[in-house]
Design goal:
With about 230 residues, this protein is mainly alpha-helical. The chain has seven helices and two strands. It is globular.
Length: about 230
């Protein structure tokens, strides 16, 4: 009988002593670690190989929504132009209002005065666009607009004036961090918007459309000025 091996012991006696001595455990742990590294490396390789395909699928999905929306709007415009106009304007209004709320609610974290000014101005531009939508000829929401397109055209022009001025002035605040009070850009933009609205309501704002004649010279020249400004 060999020394150290009791009589009648299990055939796995030496294996158990070898494992408990640490050499077996270390070998098994090393083997398991090696296997895990191989599995991880294979998964990473497969992920890297699939990354371009996933990126292409993501790009296709990014384009799917706007293309589908554009096709829907085209189809609606062929059937009912008034409904098409409402949908198009409301889409722009939603984007502008969301931009304002994002800029306003994230300012305390970003301190980005540029985004704050831009979002605050877009809020009031959206207000004029909504007013324009309700005053559009044929809507019948505002008295006198069922057969007259002048008010809607004036409001559209006023919104573009405000938007052009905003896009010219907002970049002046690029790089500014927390220098403006968060309510100041919104309040100043609101004052300008109210003044422009008062000009339209009181009749001081020039006519932009005359029934039977079409667009006025003021409207045409103003559009050119907005284009040059932007």
């Amino acid at each position: 009988m060999q020394r150290g091996k009791p009589a009648g012991v299990s055939p796995f006696f030496h294996f158990r002593r070898w494992f408990q001595g640490g050499r077996g455990g270390a070998s098994i742990r090393a083997g398991a670690t090696h296997c895990m590294h191989m599995i991880k490396g294979t998964a990473m390789a497969e992920g890297a190989a699939e990354a371009p395909a996933r990126a292409r699928r993501a790009i296709r999905l990014d384009w799917l929504a706007p293309v589908a929306a554009a096709m829907l709007l085209v189809a609606v415009s062929l059937h009912d132009f008034l409904l098409f106009h409402v949908l198009a304007e409301v889409s722009a209004i939603i984007v502008a209002v969301v931009a304002f709320f994002v800029a306003a609610h994230t300012w305390r974290f970003t301190r980005d005065d540029f985004l704050l000014v831009l979002g605050s101005g877009l809020f009031w531009v959206a207000g004029f666009d909504l007013w324009h939508t309700l005053a559009y000829k044929g809507m019948g929401v505002i008295p006198g607009t069922m057969t007259d397109a002048n008010l809607a055209t004036q409001l559209w022009l006023a919104a573009r004036f405000l938007q052009a001025v905003l896009l010219v002035l907002a970049p002046l605040t690029l790089g500014m961090r927390g220098r403006l009070h968060p309510a100041l850009p919104w309040a100043l933009s609101g004052v300008v918007a109210v003044l422009v609205g008062a000009l339209i309501i009181t009749g001081i704002f020039p006519d932009a459309y005359i029934e039977g004649s079409g667009l006025t010279l003021f409207k045409i020249a103003s559009e050119g000025a907005v284009i040059l400004t932007l």
